[in-house]
Amino acid sequence: MPAYEYEALDPSGRARRGIVSADSPHQARRELRRLRLTPLRLSAPRAERAGRLGGRRPPRLGHGAIVLVTRQLAALVAAATPLEEALNAVALQTEKPAARARLLAVRERVMEGWRFADALAEDPRSFSDLYRAVVAAGETSGDLAGALDRLATMLEKNRAMRNKALAALVYPAVLALVAGGVLTLLMTTVVPKIVEQFNAFGGELPAITRVVMGLSHFIGAYGLYLLVGVILLLAAFWRGMKTPAFKLAVDRALLRLPVIGRLLRGLDGARFARTLSTLVAGGAPLLDSLAGAQRTCANDYIRARLDGAIAMVREGASLANALRRAGALPPMMTHMAAAGERSGALPDLLDRAAAQLEDEFDAASTVALRLLEPAIIFAMGGAIMVIVISILLPILRLNALAAG
C-alpha cells in the first residue's frame, strides 16, 4: 500500500504533518477527513517520487543513519508499539528523504504481512545480510526489541573500532607526508641555491655536501618521474587488492608483522566475537551465526581459516576446539569460547572477550602512536641536521681558507 506525506489542519486549526497509507491519493484524502483533518497538501515522499521519475535508486543509507534508526526502533518495539507504527514514527522523525522513503517501503511490506527481515531484504544495499540475520533471529525468538538493541550496540562498537583503526593509520601517514614534503622542499629549493654560492669560490666540497648535492640534483631532475612511478605502483597495488589471491597473500603477510599483525588480529577478533555474541543471543543457529560473524572480518586470511572452523563445527566439533585448530583469532577468545560452552553463557563471555580485545587494541594503538610520532620527528630532525651540516662545513672551510 503506497504511503503519502500530508500537511493538514486539525479541528483547532493547527498545522499537522505526517504520513498516511492508502491505495490512491483520493483514498488518502478520505482517510484524513475520517481522522478529522483538512488536507492541504498530499504527495508521495520526495525520495520515492524521484526514484520513480528518474529510474534511479536513491543512495544507500549511511552507517550513522542505520544505527540511529535501529536504536529508535528498538526503543519503540520494547515499549509494545506495533512494528508498523514504530516504522511510521521513525520515518516521521527522519529528516533525510531517502531514509524516509526506505522506511515507508519497509512499512508497506510489513503491513502486507511480510516478515520484517524479508521486507528489509528489498534494500540489500542499506541493510546487509548480517543485519537481516539478526532481525530474523529476533523475530524467530520473539525478542525483536532485544535483537534490535543488541544490533544497534554491535553496529556502534564496530563503527568505533573502525574509526580508531583509521585514526591510528591516518595520523602517522599525514605526519610522514608532511615531513617528506618539507625535506623535498629543502632539497629542491634551498640546498641548490646555497651550493651555487660555494661553487663560485671553487675548491673541493666536503663529501657529505657532495652527497646532499647529488640527492638534490636527482630529485630536481627525476622527482616528477619518481612521483608518477609511486602513484602507478599504488594504483597497481589498489587494483591487486581487488584480486582474491593477491589480497589473501597481502593479508597473510600483514599478520606476520611483529606489531601490526597483533593489532589486526585483535581488531578482527573483536568484530568476530561481538557479532557472534549478538547473533547467538538473538537465537540464530550457531552455524549461521559463525557465517555471519565471519563476514565482519576484514582480513581474508582470517576469513579463510574460519572456513575450516565452520566446517569442523558442522561436523560436530565444539566451537572452542574449532577456533583453536583454525589458529586465526587471539588465544584469549578461544579460552572465552570454551568457558562459555561449559557454562552455557556463550554470548555473555563472547561479549566480554570482544570488550577485552577492544581494550587491548586501544592500549596498543595508543602506545604505537606515542612511539611513532617522536620516531618520525626524530627522523625528520636527523635529515634536516644532515642538510645543515652539509651547508655549514663548506662555510667553515671557506673561513679557514680566508684566515690562512
From TrEMBL:
The chain crosses the membrane at residues 165-191, 211-238, 375-396. GO terms for biological process: protein secretion by the type II secretion system. The keyword Transport applies. Residues 70-192, 272-394 form the Type II secretion system protein GspF domain. One of its GO terms (molecular function) is metal ion binding. It is found in: Cell inner membrane. GO terms for cellular component: plasma membrane; type II protein secretion system complex. It is a multi-pass membrane protein. Belongs to the GSP F family. Component of the type II secretion system inner membrane complex required for the energy-dependent secretion of extracellular factors such as proteases and toxins from the periplasm. This is General secretion pathway protein F. It comes from Amphiplicatus metriothermophilus.
